[in-house]
Specification:
- The complex is a heterodimer.
- By secondary structure, chain A is of the alpha/beta class.
- Chain A has two domains: 182 residues, HUPs (Rossmann fold); 139 residues, Rossmann fold, CATH 3.40.50.1220.
- In chain A, 31% of the residues lie in helices and 26% in strands.
- Chain A is built from nine helices and 18 strands.
- In chain A, β16, α7 and β17 form a beta-alpha-beta unit.
- In chain A, α3 crosses α4 and α5 runs parallel beside α9.
- The model of chain A has no long low-confidence stretch (mean pLDDT 94).
- Chain B is α/β, with parallel strands linked by helices.
- A nine-stranded mixed beta sheet of chain B has the order 11-10-9-12-8-1-6-7-13, with helices on both faces. Chain B has a two-stranded antiparallel ribbon with strand order 2-5.
- The longest helix of chain B is centred in the first third of the chain and has 17 residues.
- Chain B is globular.
- The model of chain B has no long low-confidence stretch (mean pLDDT 95).
- Classes of the chains: A alpha/beta, B alpha/beta.
- Chains A and B meet through α3, α4, β7, β9 and β10 of A and α3, α4, β9, β10 and β11 of B.
Amino acid sequence: MADKVWVYIDQFDGEAIPSSWELFGAASKLANEMGGGVTAVVAGADVQQVAELAVHYGADQVYVCNDETLKEFRAEPYASVLSGLASEQQPEVILFPTTSRGRELAAMVAVDLKTGVLPDVTNLEIQDGKVLATRPVYGGKLISKVVCNAQPQLITLRGRAFSPPAADSTKTGQVDPVAASVAEDEIKTKVSGYTESQKGVSLNDAAVIVSGGRGVSNNPSLEPPAGLDESEVEIWRAQEGFKLVGELASVLNAAVGASRAAVDAGYILYEHQVGQTGKVVSPDLYIACGISGAIQHQAGMRTSKVIVAINKDPEAPIFKMARFGVVGDLFEILPPLTESLKARLNS
Amino acid sequence: MKIVVCVKQVPDTAAKVVVENGQVTWGDAPLVINPWDEYAVETALLQEEEHGGEVTVISVGGEDAKEALKHALAMGCGNAILVSDPSLKNADSLVTSQVLAAAIQKIGDVDVVFFGKQAIDGDVGVTAAQTARVLGWPSLTLVSEITELDPGSKTISVERSVEEGRQVVSGQLPAVVSVVKDIGEPRYPSFMGIRKASRAEIPMWSIAEVGVEVSEPVVEWPDLFNPPKQEVVTEIVSGGSPQETAETLAEKIIEEKVL
């Protein structure tokens, strides 16, 4: 008898994305109420060890698909593997991590199996045998409860909204290989690699985020190199400012975030943007440096556990939501703050 | 080259969206074209400028979605179509993508379809991939740069902005592309564009006219509410010098046990 609750393990380059393990706590809770165990699915070119790890995290059964066509992520062949398995085994729920891949896969499987997707969910309950999911909408300005009246219910869980169970290497489970279902010559895309590969901690997984705003370019005591025009000077100043943000982030093993204003001004790549038109995050600690806190930015970080704001303007709206505020110059505060936290964390 | 852009009408990002008596309201804030979709319109127009052809903008929605279409027309799109039908009132993303796919087929000979990354109301962000899947076309989502698009050889190369960096992908046309902000700042509508758009008669297609059998919507929203107020007591940390302030702040952060 196939399990009713499935989890999809997202991986990159043969390593599971950490938020995949967060699915297992939620999945076993659902399985307790719905009956049966938890089945995991993982696909890639060389993911046998991910499948074995999934057993340690609580999978009773793992379907593992190893195939050269799945070496680089392409949504189409991945979706076909998952849709094929699910239409055969008829699970009631499939959980995905809310990564770019998890969301796109859920979207395509929903088309294949004529069902619904509930993305970026922060809480799950069972009501009348169905999953009632909680998810923020309008960039976190409102919260909705949603249900999917078809099966499988495809649900992507927001990173860090659910805690991962502890891995237990004594656990055992069944690992079953499955074949890929689409041949290379039927796949209409080719991946040739990655550029500007992201270094450091990703915003989605980060327990701590240090963000910079427009204020990072406001250090009057810096003397820019000669020969830059006005806009180049501004970018140079901003990059110097983001260096301080980055140094604090690296001491705290944190991800670097940014406000929309900083991204729009060209200070930092869009990938770092936190807010309604960027990433919505909820770390344990969010340190906002030189960010005034427009409503769009608040929407993206308001659920952070502890917010610290450093801003020169005492009227900045960010202070209203901060647990701790420093009215001051981030260029004066950040270097000693970094040193002091480093010393305390090392002791 | 035949280009389609799909857009949605949403409350402005600066709007204070709240639930009052079970209804979502945003005061007197305007409804606007979904900000992500402006990037899609911009991308479509740049491709049209480079390769020639025409850009058609489509929306699925009520009468009020015409404003989003008019904005796209004012930016420079040639045609607009509103797919509107009473049966679509509770459409979920699957239904919407089936309708869009059918409308794209009805337009015919389309080379590329552009979407914004997601709509800022529902934040679902799956319609582009779903439309691609319904059509059986490659799905190139989260695209930050189109490095090459050749309508002659029917190929496209892009960079997709994903967690690990920029994935370099090439694919066959026709394709569905969703774009993110790095694709380029959307242009402002020109004065002439606004005049032309305000006079435009936007054709409305019903479900019957699109000729599609759509699924029953399966996603329901039984409840919508305001987030619980977070009671924050802000403590302003200060000291005799930046050094002292920083020390105190560091101590307080450590005391919160979040590191």
